[in-house]
Amino acid sequence: AEKIGSDTIRYLYASAPVQNDVRFGYNLGDDARKKLLSFWNIYTFFMTYASIDKPDLSTFKPNLSDLTPVDKWLIIRTNEFVKKAKNYLDDYKVYLLTKDFETFTDDVSNWYIRVNRRRFWKTGDQRDKMTAYYALYYALKNLTLVMSPVIPFMTEKIWQEAIRTSETSEMESVHLKRFPEELFKLDDNDKLIERTALVRDAISTAMRLRNEQQIKVRQALNKIFICSDQDTAKKISLFDKYILSELNIKQIEYIDDMSIIEDTYLTVNFKNAGKVLKGDVNKLKDFLAKKTDNE
Fold it and tell me: Which of 4, 49, 272, 291 could cysteine-pair with 29, CB 3.0–4.6 Å?
């Protein structure tokens, strides 16, 4: 505990299914610490800007019209996490809670924060900035409450530094607070969970293609083609501006037939041709070079 931390050990034990033998070691402890780091990074990001802006979230609640699609996604995703967590804890399956916790923190860090950084930087639209603070704070607060029995020391630190600073009327300790019950009521009528998964998949595929072609993100591209049916295209198009921003691309074109962007052409394998033609392979090369595309 003195070497890797009490919360790390607790998290490592909590992550182990009770029906299996518990594996332990410093390497496993380091892995557990890395998983907790995503949670800590969410808190660090929030505090970096909250310590400057000092948002008062004790009475602030955004209108539905103020919420962006990504704000709504985060609130719905948080509610989903809380409900699943309650079921896991009621069934004494804490190891399932830790897995869902890891997925959720990754979603917040690598999606919500990633695409919303500029909203915390800008000074013009204060209402939009407060809405972004609210959505992130809502996720951070509920994460802290849900995970407090598993990682009590980290959650208490976050509660004192972030939650009680933003809501001065809150309980003195996270461990005096009841499990989250009053959630922001927001139905997923627009299927934002499904749509966000499609968008993130499109972005990750495009990023992989960039890497394969060794084209860095800082190099702007003119257009991206997304091949899908009309229903999927409609679901994704709500997030067009996030796709363009993440990929540094100027415009999106949705197509339903890959043949539109495919080029068909004939080429010669000169390595194999050389074995057959020997010294005449260069004559073939010169002959083909003189031919037009139509020929």
Answer: 4
